[in-house]
Amino acid sequence: MSKFRKFGLPRLLDGTSPGQPKPKVEGSDGIPRFDCNKLVIKDRIGHGAFGDVFTADYQAPGKDSKETVVIKKMINVMDAEEKKLFLKEVALLSGLNHPNVVKFMSVCHKPPAMMLEYVYFDFNLFGLDERVSTLSDFLIKIDEYDSAGYQEMVSHAATEIISGLAYLHQTRIAHRDLKTANISHT
Description:
The chain has helices at residues 3-7, 80-94, 135-144, 150-170, and strands at residues 40-48, 51-58, 67-74, 104-109, 112-117, 121-122, 131-132. With 186 residues, the protein is of the alpha+beta class. The protein has a 5-stranded antiparallel β-sheet with strand order 1-2-3-5-4, with helices on one face.
């Protein structure tokens, strides 16, 4: 057994407490709702053809403290097909439950947006003041700091990603329906 496995890979941090309940406000479909217009947007961490991805501060109803979450905010002008795809993604994500798949938290319909847990890898344990929230950024940082033990960390991350993909296939969700960015490694 390698030293890395004895040391143990640091868990990804997600800004929430284990077992923290989803927001209580739900629609008729049972999916929790939030008001995107009441969030304090912090940073844009990604973008695509359908919209942008931000971090935001969110205070769940009945909670005293705020947490950082990810908001996938769709473009406001969506045609019928785009709206159908958005609702399909919400339905798919809300039904998933695996430690290596980013957790869906709630949805907003005006503007169309979804709230996901904020997962990041903190390099502080390795003496670096760096935090990354995407697999590509993680791999870039590993490559920049070519240090002993990082190769095993990459292998461990790959194993965790494969576990998340296997779960998606077992639940009959093709990985092409969900981006690999929605898969986390712990």
